Amino acid sequence: MIDKQTDREPAAVKPSATQGVAAVPSANTPAPAAAEIPMPEPEQIPTVSLTKLLRRLLAQITRERIITAGLACVSLGALFLFWYLGTKYRLEFYIRFKNVPTPYEVFQQLTQVGLSNKYLVNIAISVRRILTGFFIAIAIGVPLGLAIGKYQRVRDLFMPVVEVLRPIPAIAWVPMSIMLWPNNEASIVFITFIGAFFPILLNTIHGVHSLDGVLIRAARCLGASEFRLFLNVILPGSLPHIFTGLAVGMGVAWVSLIAAEMISGQFGVGYFTWEAYSLVDYPAIVLGMITIGFLGLACSGIIRMVGNLLMPWLAFAPGGKR
Prior knowledge:
By secondary structure, the protein is mostly helical. The protein has helices at 50-88, 103-114, 118-150, 152-165, 174-180, 184-209, 213-221, 226-264, 269-278, 282-310, and strands at 92-93, 95-96. Strands 1-2 form a two-stranded antiparallel sheet.
């Protein structure tokens, strides 16, 4: 009887751990397939859902907006409450509320004026004047500020004139503007332009000076032309300071416009307020003041909204939530 073990191949001898020799696979042994290599399971790979990320971001933005709107309501409500209590009890503690109209009287004045077109026409004329002077100030102030901030020779040429004219308040230009321009409309627009021009110009110059020089040198090394340097490096880098100048300039422009309308205007919110003072119509005076405040708030809000659209990266920068 033949032993069955003689027909078998000798079993491979496994080396011991002390020998330190790896076993050599036989030629007949098939190579392990790639699918047999252990891979981590899908649930083990950390993944971030885009939907969850967007929901988180929207929730944070909504929460921030709710908090901002709530604080704004508290602030305006406190001012309104102070006005209401002062006029209700006719308080007199150095500030006298004896002749100040109540909120209800101002509301009645609004309902009476709103029935006529005079109030709306005055608002439209003031808005037209402020936008005309403001956009002229942007068209001149921003390019000139970029050139002054970038080129030393341009700065040496224009800055002495700027420093001489800048301290002159816009209201002091009213007599001169009446002599310079052929009509009151042009002179009022000029006063508005003067009020907005210098904040826009100086903030643009500061924005160019604050720009990192490494960015300019890198753009030059990459072969950027002078036009591309201004368009792609200097202007975007200066935008935060430019919009700061726009916000400040808009406020100064409204102050200048109202003063000019009170002195030499025949229409506008400033003229409406001054006429009410001449007629001793106290509710109309307060209505004009509130109208000026809300118009200025709306203009500043539009500037802030445009800035957020043109500079979306600031919303994610540290301290950049606006």
